[in-house]
Amino acid sequence: MPFNPPLRDWSGKTVWLVGASSGIGAACASLLYEQGATVFVSARNSAALARWADARVAPDAQGRARAVALPLDVGDAEALHRAARVIAARGPLDLVVYCAGHYLAIDAQDYRLEEMLKHQQVNYVGALQLLEAALPLLRRQGHGHLSLVSSVAGYRGLPRSLAYGPTKAALINLAEALYLDLRPLGLGVSVVNPGFVQTPLTAQNDFHMPALITPEQAAREMLAGWARGAFELHFPRRFTRWLKLLRLLPYRLYFPLVRKFTGL
Ligand SMILES: NC(=O)c1ccc[n+]([C@@H]2O[C@H](COP(=O)([O-])OP(=O)(O)OC[C@H]3O[C@@H](n4cnc5c(N)ncnc54)[C@H](OP(=O)(O)O)[C@@H]3O)[C@@H](O)[C@H]2O)c1
Known about the structure:
Elements: E1 14-18, H1 23-34, E2 38-42, H2 46-54, E3 67-69, H3 77-90, E4 95-98, H4 113-141, E5 145-149, H5 164-182, E6 188-194, H6 215-228, E7 232-235, H7 237-248, H8 251-262
Helix pairs in contact: 1-6, 3-4, 4-5
Bound molecules: NADP nicotinamide-adenine-dinucleotide phosphate.
NADP nicotinamide-adenine-dinucleotide phosphate is lined by residues 19-25, 43-45, 73-75, 99-103, 122, 149, 151, 194, 196-197, 199-202.
């Protein structure tokens, strides 16, 4: 029995991807569009979104654009509400994905409250603001799926993940609570926990990223996970299954193993 109603046939479906001007979000947008969905893309970089939408001109059954740019900052609650109204005017919304993210590798030696709060605003508070805009719509429909892109960095504390990790842990917990609340109402909820993906976000990493995958591979994994009706979509498994194992260990084993593997 799957956790969620499987999402398979994208033809005629509508998706809103928030954080889709580059990386994983942009790759998902392209793949969903190729599979026939109408895709609304949001992020701050309006030029990148417009370029993406302008390059995709196939209409839907009613002759309307299937690739639509809705630029916004996730810190702007009113802009999220406006975008949700535009999407609702088109018809039912089948999938909302929160993949906006901010990441800077910092540790306690480099503690800066401003950076800590920026991570919290983009990675977590932005998701809360999206929920405020999208949840009434999904609840009214009585169907639809909400997917939050978190990270394996949210499983447990990691070196140089002081600002990023806690926001991703919060997203995982949020998704679990949402699942319990919303599944009985007929809605689907999932959390996406990727390992390392080669995107602008990870370009700053000066360390070896094990099992690094492309955004296109990540997008394929995500569509496969939604098609299975999974709750947690984690990939690539050759990497994430080790992290899931580490997650289960007591602290007296976890801390030395993390030091050994990261050398930090
Ligand atoms: N790459 C990895 O290895 C990896 C691993 C695990 C999880 N993730 C997560 O995957 C998600 C996508 O990241 P990515 O790797 O694809 O990096 P990315 O290419 O940098 O994508 C981040 C997206 O978030 C958007 N964004 C950032 N701040 C925003 C704001 N204030 N308002 C609206 N949009 C905003 C960016 O667009 P604008 O700059 O145009 O606003 C961009 O579209 C993030 O949540 C990230 O934490 C990534």
